[in-house]
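Much of the work behind modern protein science is quiet bookkeeping, done one molecule at a time. Below is the pair of lines this work produces for a single protein:

***
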Amino acid sequence: MRIVSLFSGAGGLDLGLRRARHEIVWANDIFLDAAATYKSNIGDHIDTRDICTVPSEEIPECDVVVGGFPCQGFSVANWGRTLEDPRNRLFGELVRVVHDKQPRYFVAENVKGLLSMDKGRALSVIEAAFEKASQLGYRVRHQLVNAADYGVPQLRMRVIIVGVRGDQPDFQIFPPPPTHADPSTARMLRLKPWVTVGDALEHFPEPENGRHIPNHENSQYKLRFNGHLGHRFVDPAKPAPTVTARGDDRGGVVVLHHPGNHRRMTARELAAVQSFPDDFVFSGTKTSAYRQIANAVPPLLGEAIGTMLAEAEAAGIARKAEAA
């Protein structure tokens, strides 16, 4: 299907959708380093204008609109989160594009904190806005998923919101069926065990021996282990904790410890924890690369979403054939 991608960042979601054989016809993000990464790894169809200034008629027609709209204002890490936070209002631009382009489906992604924000009122407001975005109506649902259940070596909880236009067949299965599970239940469920962070990173040499590897430079930050975010012991036998973009552009990005617990991860290693392939190179400074990676949707989760969309498309084709 033809997909328009908003708040695309470095392209983690889009990479996964492409793996599921969809076509990204237009993408948008104002973070120039992320756009440069996107352009060099995925394609030059990314637009860097502020989405608030892009007329809908300049956006291509599409079957699906996707967007991991900015989540900082929704995160439980932000104690001052409110619906009035201007970062939260950007979801309205996603609604605007859905309203004007009338895609058959849309997919939005956000942090777990969205479920509890304002005692659930924020999510209700968002879903109601999407439901009314078409005269045919959208059937809107949401689900909390764990990226580790799709082969990502990271315990990353995210809310997936999907919408199906009223004249389209519903998703055959939602959320996408897991491929992995906690090792204690994986065999019973006939799924693969979660991928551990130790396994995901074992093929990387230490940075001083891997200078030929792009984005494989670590900081000289002296580790602390006080239990706070970014200062926790990382168990190599489990998926990594959630990769976070907390911090600021002056170098305050919080980076996970390497599972050897002797240094922080390099951007290359952190990208692997997000399930980016090793040949996906990030543009900009080391700090910028860390931020791009942390803000991304894991490509393997994106691929699972893309497969779900493909199954819905196949069901629609079958229904048309039966009607003919």
